[in-house]
């Protein structure tokens, strides 16, 4: 029998979620395409947004034989918790609460990725009964001297923000291809 959690799951605003995520998520970033943010007490935050790949629903529909649309699919873009880990609190339990909330908003499907570059193999997705849908392709990224990793889009935004060309921005970064990511899929019941 699963014990009830002493923590409450609630929707929080983008900026509260961003403060938490920048502090506790390995990426130290918060995506702008965010739609819903959930907090589990002061212990964890889950962020759901519109997938950057606007056609991922077509791929997922073919792969899963589900009726997936842009309107009923979200991506779990950030999931993080404070350190040290509390042994009696499971992120899979938190996600279950998030999914119940999302179901009320007519969200039926979740896509997420575990980033092998950061040694994330998808343990929480396995524990939450996500379905493994293979790996993505390797992606071109850029890394600076401090080890910060940027996507091509992020580097483009950096160039625009600093009023320089993309080619000029690339000079401060080394080009690398990151490992594939594991792709995970969940059908909210």
Tell how many strands the DSSP assignment holds. Answer: 10
Give the CATH level 1 class. Answer: Alpha Beta
For the record, the CATH architecture stands as 3-Layer(aba) Sandwich
Radius of gyration: 17 Å
Spatial gap, N to C terminus: 20 Å
The DSSP helix count reads 6
CATH superfamily: Gcn5-related N-acetyltransferase (GNAT)
Percentage of residues in helical conformation? 25-40%
Mean pLDDT: 92
Please tell me about this protein's structure.
By secondary structure, the chain is an alpha+beta fold. The chain has helices spanning 14-24, 56-64, 91-104, 123-127, 152-161, 166-170; strands at 9-12, 34-40, 44-49, 73-81, 109-115, 131-135, 139-143, 149-151, 174-178, 181-187. Strand 7 and strand 8 form a beta hairpin. The protein starts with 8 loop residues before the first strand and ends with a strand. The model has no long low-confidence stretch (mean pLDDT 92).
Quick summary:
The protein has 189 residues and is an alpha+beta fold.
List the helices and strands and how they pair.
Layout: E1 9-12, H1 14-24, E2 34-40, E3 44-49, H2 56-64, E4 73-81, H3 91-104, E5 109-115, H4 123-127, E6 131-135, E7 139-143, E8 149-151, H5 152-161, H6 166-170, E9 174-178, E10 181-187
Parallel strand pairs: 4-5
Antiparallel strand pairs: 1-2, 2-3, 3-4, 5-10, 6-10, 7-8, 7-9
């Amino acid at each position: 029998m699963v014990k009830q959690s002493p923590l409450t799951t609630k929707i929080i605003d983008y900026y509260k979620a961003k403060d938490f995520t920048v502090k506790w998520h390995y990426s130290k970033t918060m995506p702008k395409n965010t739609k819903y943010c959930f907090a589990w007490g002061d212990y964890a935050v889950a962020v759901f947004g519109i997938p950057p790949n606007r056609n991922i629903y077509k791929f997922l529909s073919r792969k899963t034989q589900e009726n997936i649309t842009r309107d009923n699919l979200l991506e779990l873009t950030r999931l993080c918790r404070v350190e040290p880990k509390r042994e009696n609190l499971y992120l899979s339990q938190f996600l279950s609460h998030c999914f119940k909330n999302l179901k009320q908003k007519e969200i039926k499907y979740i896509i997420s990725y575990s980033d092998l570059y950061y040694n994330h193999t998808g343990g929480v997705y396995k524990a939450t009964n996500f379905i493994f849908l293979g790996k993505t392709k390797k992606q071109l990224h850029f890394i600076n001297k401090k080890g910060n990793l940027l996507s091509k889009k992020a580097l483009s935004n950096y160039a625009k923000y600093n009023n320089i060309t993309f080619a000029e921005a690339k000079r401060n970064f080394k080009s690398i291809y990151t490992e594939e990511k594991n792709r995970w899929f969940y059908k909210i019941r």
